[in-house]
Amino acid sequence: MKIREKGLPPKEIAQMLGRMLQDDLTFTSGRIVGSMCTEPARFARRLYSKYLEKNLGDPGLFPGTAKLEAECIAAIGNLLSHSNAAGSLVSGGTEANIMALWSAKKNKVERPEAIIPISAHHSFDKAADLLGVKMVKVPTDVMGRIDVKKVKSSITPNTIMMLGIAGTTDLGVIDPITELSEIAEANNIHLHVDASFGGFVIPFLRELRYDVEDFDFKLTGVSSISIDPHKMGMAPVPAGTILFRDIAMLERINIVADYLAGGEASKVTLLGTRPGTAAIVLWSMLNLFGMQGYRRIVKRCMNLTYLLYEESQRMNGVKPVQEPTMNILGLKPLRSSPQQVAKELRVKGWAVSAFPKHLRICVMPHVRKKHILEFAKALDLLEKTEKIIVRHGSSYRALADKAKMHKYQYSFL
Ligand SMILES: Cc1ncc(COP(=O)(O)O)c(C=O)c1O
After folding, report:
1. CA 208-240-165 angle, 5° bins
2. Is residue 352 a part of any domain in this protein?
3. Is residue 337 part of a domain?
4. Which of 173, 273, 276, 286 could form a disulfide with 144 if both were Cys (CB 3.0 to 4.6 A apart)?
C-alpha cells in the first residue's frame, strides 16, 4: 500500500480493518492451542487504550508510570524469592535474554562464550550474533533437561554465562537449576535462568504440591532471570521482565541519555521509547488476580493438560513425548511428520506448533475443557483418516484434501 494523499473517515477504516483481520485466529475460539500467549482480561483491554500516551522511555514526564514499573519489578522479584531484585519491564523474553547476555559480557574476556542447552530459545542465537558471543550448545538428557556433566566439561576461561531454562519452549521442562547454580558459584560464572514461560507457573505448581525443583533467586548462584508476564502472567503483549540479583549487573549496561525530561532514564533497557501502558496494565493484572487468582489459573491449566495427556494415551496416531511438567504437552505423531499433522489440523481450524519431532500443545488460560475434548477428537479423526489413506493410496489424500477445503471434514470417508 501507499499512504493516501487524503485520509479516510474512521468508519471506513474500521470496516476495512474488519475485513482484513477476518483471517486472524482468536483466543476466544479456543482453537489456538500452540501459543504461549492468551486472551487478555476484559479489564486489561479497557485500561490499555486509556493510557496510550505514557512513554517509559522518558520517565521524567511520567514519574507515576515509572513508579508502577518499579512496583511490578518488586512484586515479580518477591515471586522469585528476591525482595530487592533490580530489573526492567521489557518487550518480552527475547529482549530479556539479550539483556542478560549483554550484562554477562561486561565480565570482559577476549573471546566470550556462553554455555546453553540445545533446547534454548532461538533468542539466544540472536543475542549471540548481536553481542559477538560464541554459543556452546550442550545436549539434553532423555527428559529434555540440560546435561550437567557436559556443562561442567564445557567451561573454559572464556565462559561468561551459563543458561538454565525453567520451562523449555518445546516441552516446558525445567533444567536442574540447583546443580547449575552450584557450578556457577564454584566457577564465578553468571547463571541466567530463562523462566520466560515457567516464571508465572512454577511458583504456583509448588503451592499446588506438584513436585518441582527450585529455579529462582533462592539459589545463590542464579544471577538473572527472564520472566514474561505476557505468557502466563495474564498481561497483554508486550510485557516481559528481566531481573538481576544485584543492581550493579543492570547498571553496567546502562547508557545514559541526558537530554530526557527527567534526566536519565530510571530503567535500563535495550529499547528507548517503551509503552508505559504495558506497566500500568501489568501492575493492574498483578493486583487483579493476586496469588490466589494465578494459583487457580495454573491449577485449571494443569488439570486440562493432564486431561489431554490421558486422552492422547488412548490414541493410536500420536504418543505423548513424556508426562508434562507444566501446561505444555509434546505429542509425537506416529504416521506423518509433525509439520504435516499441524497443517492438517490448521485446515480444520486448530493452531498447534510443530517442532522437528513433535507437536507442542500449550494449554493456556483461554483453553476450556470442551476445547481439549474437541481437539482430542479432531486429532483422533485425523489419525483414522490417515489410516484409510495409508491403506488405499494417495488418491484418497487428494479426495480428503478436497473435502477439507469444502469443510466436509472427512465425513464422506
Ligand atoms: C523459554 C523462552 N524464552 C524466551 C522466549 C521469547 O519470548 P518472546 O517471544 O516474548 O520474545 C520464548 C518464547 O516462546 C520462550 O519459550
Report:
1. 60
2. no
3. no
4. 173
